[in-house]
Fold this sequence. Notes:
Blueprint: H1 28-32, E1 35-39, E2 42-46, E3 53-56, H2 58-66, E4 73-77, H3 91-96, E5 99-101, H4 107-112, E6 117-122, E7 125-126, H5 134-139, E8 144-146, H6 165-180, H7 183-202, E9 212-216, E10 224-226, H8 231-239, E11 242-243, E12 252-254, H9 257-263, E13 267-272, H10 278-287, H11 295-298, E14 302-306, H12 307-310, H13 316-333
Amino acid sequence: MRKLLAAALCLATTLTAGCGATVEPASGKAGSEAVTLTNCGKKVTYDKVPERVVTNDVGITELMFALGLEDRMAGFAMPDDKGDLDAVPWKDGYDKVKWLSKDQLTKENALDARADLVFAGWNYGFREDGDFTPASLKKLGIPSYILTESCHNGREGGARGIMPPLDALYTDLTNLGKLFGVEQRAARLITDFKQQVAAVHAKAPEGAERPDVFVYDSGQDQPFTTGRYAAAEQIISKAGGVNVMHDLADSWTTVGWETVVKRDPDTIVICDYGDVDAAQKKKFLLSHGPLRDVSAVKNKRIYVLDYVDLVESPRNPSAVARLGAYLRKVADEK
């Protein structure tokens, strides 16, 4: 597996309590009473504190680890193309919790793990085709929690996102803190994350100096990129840039190359994961004919962030800091 960006380790100094340290135990109230949360705009009641949570994908799994909830987990599913998991602040969680599948979660995974909660998201495990949805799990007696970044927003085509992405992160931490009785831990994380982001934003370029940024996930015929409801949106804006696809009322979606060319980004951020690595993606972008006059390509301003940096996860604040340092250099060159 490829190595994660070494800078991700800077989180370790501020999140040591998420690296196997003891956090407050679930409160007696949380253990004996039902808890009602608002998830994707709907009230959902959980009759008890889950003890065998199954998660899908790296960002969702690390939300549990960041809250010190490894003991409440029965396993996780994710592909093995998401970087070197030995190099993250939550290595102890990965060592402790069972890796159930190197694909997306299935009903069989959940049943075999005797899951009493599935924490996943739309297109992060949950599939609209009905094979694996909160409704299908409910029929099996298994409750669900949906990642807020992935909530459907009622727009055409299954568009996702109902609030600013960092608000989605803070919402999920707050909800998980309430459900598992670790509200203080959740509040400390949120406060720390907000402080990290604010410190970067205070140094960010302003006005016309803010670089325009295009996120390239994948795709050669058409690029897969990020709209205003994906975590990348605020990672870019708080770092001092402008997402050139801000007008897309979706999280992750496909656009045309002609749109990218017209919007002429100063910088391209590559989302690093999958069978096509960052070096291959960069080579494609620099050689793709339609992009030859785009500022980012002409000036070879291409920056790499890991997949988990760009989806909702506790690594988002670190991603803001790293991208912020890069964009300040771009602004100085403009």
